[in-house]
Amino acid sequence: MYEERPSPLVPGAIVWRHTGAPGGPVLPDGCMDLLWVGGRLLVAGPDTGPHPAGEVPGGARGAVSGLRFAPGTAPALLGVPAHELRDRRVELADLWPDPQVRALAERMSAYEDPGAGLERLARSRAARSAPPDPLASRVAAGLRAGESVAAVAAVVGLGPRQLHRRSLDAFGYGPRTLGRVLRLQRALELARRGLPQAEVAHRAGYADQAHFAREVRALTGTTPGAYAAANRDTAQPSGSSTAA
Predict the structure, then answer these.
(1) Interval 51-107: pLDDT, tens
(2) How far apart are CA 51 and CA 22, in angstroms?
(3) How many CA atoms lie within 13 A of 25 on its CB side?
(4) Strand partners, 19
(5) Which ranges carry the HTH araC/xylS-type domain (predicted)?
(6) What's the predicted TM-score (pTM) here?
(7) What CATH superfamily classification does 134-237 receive?
(8) Domain ranges in the chain?
(9) How far apart are CA 1 and CA 186, in angstroms?
């Protein structure tokens, strides 16, 4: 079972929990997650393709709680560029001093609701960290709206190389890949509504249905039809826990 809620403490973040057997693979969404699994704190980096839901150590055996950060907001809090965590799941102790992480894990164990503990951990850390790159939200918003990379670069006043470098640090990949990932998420949300594939392709901004099918295959490892069949009449999580 999967459930989620917006975080009132961490702007733009989602608190989520999954119990029971792992579902389908986790699909790319441009987000990063702070995880509490089996008494351990881990970080899920930004994905470029599908990852097995049970890939997180301990995630196949019990409940997993997570705090999903909006695209571009986690690197400042974690203190590491997003591209260093691309397609990775790592122990938080690999990023922060081990004694500090052990102390945080002890505090987390005291929470009846691990999601609330993750929120408070993130809020406390954010108060002592540099703010997220202000460019990130503008870039993500433009690409989510279907704007071209050139148009987004012009709006934020950066050249292509500068935009690419800043995007790697904030999102884990360049703006073109981020645009593909965000467009995929738009398309999958439309597909879950039961819309015909041709309409999904048009409304999500693909050149045609064939283009849509190629992108779904490249980013999820499945076909639009198989995805729609697997997720029909099923309440789907957003972001990093979206299943294929």
Answers:
(1) 987 676 655 567 899 999 999 999 999 999 999 999 999 999 999 999 999 999 999
(2) 12
(3) 16
(4) none
(5) 133-230
(6) 0.90
(7) Homeodomain-like (1.10.10.60)
(8) 2-127, 134-237
(9) 23
